[in-house]
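Hi W., the NDP complex you wanted:
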Amino acid sequence: MKESFQALWVTEQPDQTFRREITEREISSLPAGEVLIRVHYSSLNYKDALSASGNKGVTRNYPHTPGIDAAGKVADSQSPDFRPGDKVVVTGYGLGMDTSGGFAEYIRVPAEWVVPLPEGLSLRESMIYGTAGFTAALSVYQLQKHDIRPESGPVVVTGATGGVGSIAVAILGKSGYDVVAVTGKPEAESFLRRLGAGEVIGREEVDDQSGKAFLKPRFIGAVDTVGGNILATLLKSMHYGGVATCCGLVQSPKLNTTVFPFILKSVSLIGIDSVQCSRSVRQVIWNKLAGEWKLGQLEELATECTLEELPGKIELILEGKLKGRTLVRLS
Ligand code: NDP
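Structure:
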């Protein structure tokens, strides 16, 4: 086995800026854990870009290797559950936040973080989904758990060309929902329609500035990935009994709402967390992604890059300019 490996390395500079470079690291420098994994693919999520830019809410200590997703083969295992050569996926928990992450040829993690690659998915496909796809699927799972069915009415998805949004549009479309995609990229309309959107609208249509407590009811379900005034607008635009999930903060972490949608229209707001989600739900979600929700458009969603090309992609995701999922190839 190799003693060193290539990794993205983020360092804090004396002027408090953060530098990203590719470096050679020692395997012995990886954190303790039962399972050492040779990473074949990782993927870029918004949170990785925050971690790679010195956001201390995501990563407290630098130097650091980000990457909240990894898929690869077990290289060494102290756990009876895994053997060398097993294909596995790791997303969430602490990976790439405060432990060394998937933007590297190797990771070492506790056995309970490791999910066997579900049958029906390749390592590459699992990382086209990655945390973004997992979060999208968890959002749809919650809508269904709260009885939002295809026949219930339109479901809106914000940040629709982003990682979470694009996969949410595709899963909902595949499942027969009437999907309204919200985007800041009018040129992406045909992409979103191909994924499964029946209607594509601009962000400004769901960024209400009127101050009204209610707007015309439009949606029975919502997968919100952006937060801020857009989420507040969606809550005012729900039909009676509507359900909105909330996973992100790309527009803003603030939510300025009244209680009226909740107490007068029985609207529900469901929080989505992919990081500490239980192992049993995690397995259910991965099985759905590999089975009934497996997308025919997976490759269309993916743009591949190498470790060397990753710093440029990090800049683009921070500017909201990436479309779909960015796959990082490490093998
Ligand atoms: P991406 O950067 O891939 O997508 C975000 C999308 O949001 C963009 O593509 C863009 O889509 C839209 N957007 C960008 N800027 C703005 C803005 N100022 N106002 C409104 N919309 C904007 O990110 P991800 O899809 O990976 O993640 C989305 C959010 O979900 C992030 O906040 C992330 O941290 C969070 N997240 C949370 C998880 C959890 O467990 N809770 C797990 C994974 C992600 P468009 O141009 O189409 O509008």
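The chain has a mean pLDDT of 96.

W.
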